[in-house]
Design goal:
Helix content: 40-55%
Structural class: alpha/beta
Radius of gyration: 20 Å
CATH topology: Cytosolic phospholipase A2 catalytic domain
Strand content: 5-15%
CATH architecture: 3-Layer(aba) Sandwich
Number of helices: 13
Amino acid sequence: MLFRPRPSHLVSLALQGGGAHGAFTWGVLDALLEDGRLQFDGISGTSAGAMNAVVMAHGLLQGGRDGAREALARFWRAVGSATSFRMPVELPFELPFESLPTPPENSALGMRMMLQWARHFSPAQMNPFDVDPLRDIVAGQVDFERLRAASPVKLFIAATHANTGKLRLFQAPELSVHALLASACLPMLHKAVEIDGEPYWDGAYSANPAVFPLFYDCEARDILLVLLSPLVHGETPRSAEEIRARSLDLAFNSTFLREMRMFAHATEFVGRSLLPTGRFERRLQQTRFHLVEAEELLSSLSAESRLTAKLSFLEMLRDQGRERAKAWLAAHFSLIGRRSSVDLARMFY
């Protein structure tokens, strides 16, 4: 019998950034689209999450669910096939994933050298012509004019104002190549992206991703978080390189963790309050959170792998994302429209 989606199967998506690790989210979205039982209301994305959000919206507009799957595959394969993106990836041998590509000896040397130079030279010195292959891929694959006029989902693309640190959310009517690139602009590698005379850096500095617009501006009461950064990092870093990588991780995720802690605290407070509930309290009580993540896999990869775009690596992450999304659907689809499948207080307190 043909499945007919009900309003209770309406969800919004919060897509975290993480460079090449965003291919994991590609796999998650591909599985959700293939499954076909969920409808999508809003998508909030940062950096790689923003790329996935916009490409998915473009694909939905062009050809529905199948169009979205094709658009995502076309985008990530273009990234993986671009010569300028080909950076070696370092993967640990002990990971229990048979599909992981075999790492060559000294595979991350080139990437580490580039990151080392980035500590001593500005983007204007390292990349004076501001070469960015991603710009051509995005411009060639996304119809921004049509998306601005008729996006099939609400979009919230995060960027950070470089001079104030304030969050800037670009919504569908404001979208452009520049807005999308601003969301993924790592300041140590690329010049700030100027929009209307204002400079912007990677959105992860101010929201990774922003969840509040999905709460305030979307009809869906179910919010699915797709996380690329582990909530628990394991062993304390000791080497200078490990400390720098962990510091960046914590900086990029601090605003998200703070926002989710606020949701957890407010939900708990409203739940035990004896005062009459207003519109905000009722909405908070009705909001349900869900989670797809790959903490074991992604926390085991080197920091350099986030800047790696080798196609075999991206496809491995896609396959892992598909598996995790299918497992989540099997375990928790029945909870959509009924209750959360994650305990916010336990996760974020």
